[in-house]
Design brief:
Strand content of chain A: under 5%
Number of domains of chain A: 1
CATH topology of chain A: ABC transporter involved in vitamin B12 uptake, BtuC
CATH superfamily of the largest domain in chain B: P-loop containing nucleotide triphosphate hydrolases
Number of helices of chain A: 13
Number of domains of chain B: 2
Structural class of chain B: alpha/beta
CATH superfamily of chain A: ABC transporter involved in vitamin B12 uptake, BtuC
Number of strands of chain B: 15
Largest sheet of chain A: none
CATH class of chain A: Mainly Alpha
Helix content of chain B: 25-40%
Helix content of chain A: over 70%
CATH architecture of chain A: Orthogonal Bundle
Structural class of chain A: mainly alpha
Shape of chain A: globular
CATH topology of the largest domain in chain B: Rossmann fold
Strand order of the largest sheet of chain B: 5-6-7-3-9-10
Order of helices and strands of chain B: EEEHEEHHHEHEEEEEHEEEEHH
Largest interface: A-B, 27 and 26 residues
Strand content of chain B: 25-35%
Shape of chain B: globular
Number of strands of chain A: 0
Radius of gyration of chain B: 20 Å
CATH class of the largest domain in chain B: Alpha Beta
Radius of gyration of chain A: 19 Å
Distance between the termini of chain A: 57 Å
CATH architecture of the largest domain in chain B: 3-Layer(aba) Sandwich
Oligomer: heterodimer
Order of helices and strands of chain A: HHHHHHHHHHHHH
């Protein structure tokens, strides 16, 4: 009998794996103001789940592919400028979610745990899920570390990165792929509706406590890990749903960091 | 050997020519100042030269292995990103030990090394951006309105600094300014742009009067006056008045030859015309 036979240990390890990965990526989501973009990709995950069952492929693979397709079509529609970006995000995000819900309802031969899909079911994480979370997470982190300089330069200024030879288009594409990857990983842990929270809340928490982009990425990972541990503990203690409990823990941490930031730097530190 | 050479370059976006028929050459050790009214296509030309913006016609030749240092016109660092001056210095490269201090010393802000970039004043931020570009030891430095948000004495100090950077690195500099008459005195070529190249020439030194010599010493003023030599002027309604007093839809005589079906007469109704419209609405 190994340590990982305990479902609670598996849940904790899976959550920590997600938090480490989501931290640095979440920073880019905040810096590039992509949180609604991330939300839209996440909402398409249900459609990915339904299609994965229809085509009999791996669930995470299905979610990953649909998230990529949605983000590519978003970029394509954006360049046509018929509708403003925020309206476009709203249209895509909610239609993807609705389409997924309708498709799932039609597939009467499969029993879906809809609540689990929407809000996460971290306690049902299996051994193979753990492998996928850590394999995928390590790949995402590795790519972020390897491409840190072009990713950061493109985030600060597209033209500057392009003029000095750092190919910002590649950075945008890579960030999109990484985001799809994290959404596929995170679905089981916090659920479709709460994935973006795991990306942006720990990163926003880290903003109050860091002086450099690298510091912020590291602190975001740590803040995410604390949120997961605290949330899971609370979930067991108070018998609350695990995914939402993790997000609530992240929120409490954010509020604490904000208070600390204000005491240290005064109201709205860093803002001109 | 030219660092960058543009021949007959035009950039068209959504049916409008932002710039057209522009020739530009930047040599090592030379300073080219690009002036023109708002909307004249100065930044567009710089981006086309850098390869950031694809051109619709003409040729852009960049010498191989060219290292570029770029100070964009608009660079707002989002306050969500914590970034110190020191960290900004290594944004696109890896400066060696001591080089960051040296560069900050050179632009006169060594004391701001650990400050957040969002806390800098306009002039300090421009100096930090200049230091960052200088650190790359570029062959070509492209500065898009580096004196924006800086008062007149600060402007003079920045021009002195840019001159020193040119002397130290022996790099080519493309300097963009919206000031139509006062340019950096060390400029080798002034190009006045308004969609097309209206005129080009050299600035005249202003350091001839004793008052200026008192102000700047015997070294001469870092600023010069540029007298335009247009054979036409742009009227408020977008039309063009030639030196003989005749009024045409566009300048350089191209309107006469390209009257049929060409979109060329879009060329010159930016700048002035635009301002005029705004005036009407107000």
């Amino acid at each position: 009998m190994s340590l990982f036979d305990d479902f609670l240990v598996r849940a904790l390890v899976a959550g920590l794996g997600l938090a480490i990965t989501a931290g640095p990526l979440g920073c880019f989501v905040i810096w590039r103001r992509m949180s609604y973009f991330g939300d839209t990709m996440a909402h398409s995950a249900l459609l990915g789940v339904a299609l994965a069952f229809l085509l009999d492929i791996n669930l995470m693979l299905g979610v990953f592919c649909v998230a990529i397709i949605v983000s590519l079509s978003l970029i394509a529609l954006q360049s046509r400028k018929a509708v403003s970006t925020d309206a476009l995000l709203g249209i895509l995000s909610h239609s993807a979610l609705a389409l997924g819900l309708v498709l799932v309802a039609f597939m009467t031969w499969v029993r879906f745990d809809l609540m689990g899909l929407l809000f996460g079911d971290i306690l049902s994480v299996s051994h193979s899920d753990l492998l996928l979370i850590f394999g995928g997470g390590a790949a995402v982190l590795g790519i972020i570390v390897a491409m840190w300089r072009p990713l950061l330069a493109a985030t600060v200024n597209n033209d500057l990165a392009a003029a000095e030879g750092l190919k910002p288009e590649t950075s945008q594409l890579v960030l999109m792929l990484l985001m799809a990857c994290v959404i596929a990983i995170a679905m089981k842990i916090v659920g479709i509706l709460l994935i973006t929270a795991m990306l942006i809340i720990p990163a926003a928490t880290a903003r109050w406590l860091s002086a450099t982009p690298e510091g912020m990425a590291a602190v975001a990972s740590i803040a995410g890990m604390i949120s997961v541990s605290l949330g899971l503990w609370g979930s067991v203690q108070f018998d609350s749903p695990s995914g939402p409990s993790i997000v609530v823990a992240a929120l409490l941490l954010f509020l604490a960091a904000m208070a600390a930031g204000h005491i240290k730097h005064g109201w709205l530190a860093g803002r001109k | 050997m030219a660092l960058i050479e543009l021949e007959g370059v035009g950039v068209e976006r959504q049916g409008r020519w932002l710039i057209r028929n522009v020739d530009l050459q930047i040599d090592r050790g030379k300073i080219v100042t690009l002036i023109g009214p708002n909307g004249a296509g100065k930044s567009t030309l710089a981006k086309a030269a850098l390869g950031v913006m694809p051109v619709s016609e003409g040729r852009v030749k960049r010498s191989s292995g060219l290292t570029v240092g770029y100070v964009p016109q608009k660079l707002a660092i989002d306050w969500t990103m914590p970034l110190t001056v020191e960290r900004l210095m290594s944004l696109t490269g890896s400066p060696k030990k001591g080089e960051v201090e040296e560069a900050l010393e050179m632009v006169g802000i060594p004391h701001l090394k650990h400050s957040g970039v969002q806390q800098l004043s306009g002039g300090e931020f421009q100096r930090a951006l200049l230091a960052r570009a200088y650190l790359r030891k570029p062959d070509l430095l492209v500065l898009d309105e580096p004196v924006q948000g800086v008062d007149f004495s600060g402007e003079i100090a920045l021009y002195e600094l840019i001159g020193r950077i040119r002397d130290q690195l022996n790099c080519g500099i493309l300097l963009i300014s919206h000031d139509l008459h006062i340019v950096m005195a060390q400029t080798d070529t002034v190009i006045c742009l308004n969609g097309h190249v209206c005129c080009r020439g050299r600035p005249e030194e202003v350091a001839v009067s004793p008052e200026f010599q008192n102000l700047f010493g015997t070294l001469g003023a870092p600023i010069g006056i540029y007298r335009h030599h247009h054979d036409h002027s742009h009227l408020p309604d977008g039309r063009v008045m030639r030196s003989d007093g005749s009024v045409h839809d566009n300048c350089c005589g191209c309107g006469d030859e390209e009257g049929e079906g060409h979109s060329h007469n879009h060329d010159h109704d930016h700048g002035h015309h635009h301002n005029h419209n705004q005036g009407d609405r107000a």
